[in-house]
Amino acid sequence: MPDIPHETEQREPLAQQENVQDKDAPKSITEGTQETVQKARQDVAAARLPWYHIIKRGYFLLGIYALLVVLFALLATFVHFHPILGIDVTITHEFQESQNPWLVAFMTFVSYPGSNTLLSIVLVLLVILIFWLIDLRLEAATIAVVYSVSALLNAAIKLLVGRPRPGAKLVDVFYTVTGNSFPSGHVMSYVALWGLLFTFGVILFSGHRWWRIALLIVSAFFVVMVGPSRIYLGAHWATDVLGAYLIGGALLGISLLIFLKLNQRGVLAPRKEHTWLSARKFAGSRPGRPPESR
Question: Is the pLDDT of residue 213 over 60?
C-alpha cells in the first residue's frame, strides 16, 4: 500500500509534461508556418522590380497580345463556315503517326489537370492562396478574375461558332469528349492560369532565384504542351488550338493592361505592416507609395 501513492506521484508530473507538450504542439506548428510565410514574403519582396520596370515590361508584352484579337476573329469566322479543314486532318495525322504508350501517357498527363474539374479548381485556389499569403493580393485577385472570365468566354464562343469535335472516322480519338470544339477549353484555361503566372514571373521579379526559374519553366511547359496534347489525343483540331491561343493571349493582354493600371494606382498594394521589410525593395515597388524615410 505505501508504494501506490509513490507511483501516483511519479505519474502525475509525466502526465502534466505530456499535456504541456500537446498544448505546445499546435503553437509550434503555427509559429513555424508563420515563419515560413514571412520568409517567403521577404524573398518575394526582395525580388520585386520597381514599378516603372513593371510598366515597361508589361506594355511590351501588351503590344504583342493586342495583335491576337484580329487574328482570332478572322479564324473564328473561317472555321464557323468551314468546320472540317483538310489541313486540320493532315496535322492530326502527323501528330498521331507515333502512338507509343509512353507518348500517349505523356500527352494524357499534360491534359489531365484541365480534364479534371475538381483538380483544376483546387489548383487555382491553391495558387490564389499562395499569392495572397505572400502579400501579392492584386496578383491573386487578377488570377481569380482572369481564370473565371476565360471559362465564361470559352463557353460563349463555343456556342457562337458551334464547331463539332474531330470524329473517329477522320482521326484517332483516344477518349470521347462532348461539347463543341472551337476554341479549345484546355488551352484557354492553361493560358489563363499558367500564362498569367509566366507573365507575372517575367514582369514582377528579377534575378535567378530557384522559385522564379521553376515558375517560368513549369508555366511555359504547360502553356506550350497543352496544345499539341489536345491535337494528339484527338480532342481538338489544330485550328481549335490556334484559336484558343489567340483569344487566350488577347484576354491575357487585356488583363495585363487592367493589372498595370491598378498596380500603378496602388490597388491592393502590400499591407503597411510589411513595409518594414525594405523601403527600397518593397514600398518603392508600387507607384504612389514613396519609400518611408528613415
Answer: yes
